[in-house]
Amino acid sequence: MKLGLVAGGGPFPGRVAEAAARAGHKIFVVCLKGFCDPAGFAAYPHAVERIGAGGAIIHLLRSESVTHVALAGKVKRPSMLSLVPDAWMAKAMARVGVAIFSGDDALFRAVVQVLGDEGFEVVSPQSLLQESFSEPGLLSGPEPDTTARSDIARGIQVLQSLAAMDIGQAVVVQQGMVLGIEAVEGTDALLARAGELRRDGPGGVLVKLAKTGQEMRVDAPVVGPITVTEAAQAGLRGIAVEAGRTILTERQAMLDAAHQAGLFLIAVDPAKFGP
Questions:
Q1: Residue 184: which pLDDT band, with cuts at 50, 70 and 90?
Q2: What's the fold here for domain 130-268?
């Protein structure tokens, strides 16, 4: 296959490109303007295009004989006013209808549908990064104590309750109190906010799970070394991720960072985890 990587911000798209190259795939990268640093993809054929220029992006992918498409990296969802869609994008938006005004899951499913209609097979970044997933168990740091396990269980309960609302993938819980729930601001901003709201006593935990029915090919949960650093700065004691469904980008660096910070990193099966 020839992979077209539509890249947003952060280190994750670079990891996907490296993994695809190691697997012997030819790669073409579309760097989304304002999110992706094209200098990070100098080793690959690439182009820069704004997020609203869907027609230009499709033309680039076709001109490079791309057969499969992966989407990776951080992208702030633009407002309709700032999107400035080209003609192709305007037609695509009309095709998917209310999905563009819905939550992320509905929008990402629509993106996959549109790309499929255009003849591309959408592949998940995680299909190229199987080593970035983990089985249930403690990955780094001290074993969570009873309070921490109770906070993890509380976080799982909160996220499962919110899943149908398509709000976010993460929550911070300290001593049973929900300090923050991830919404459109993302995990980084959630951690910063939780740090300002932390209470005295044992620190809280970040819990990150895939939502029920989440479009995993486009929007799988991702954590990395930056997440660990920001969790430590927020005064948290640890991070719990969903086993087999959360990507640990820069895995070894993340495990090392957790160990050095004294934070636990644990992969959990939400259906089986208990305090």
A1: confident
A2: Cytidine Deaminase; domain 2 (3.40.140)
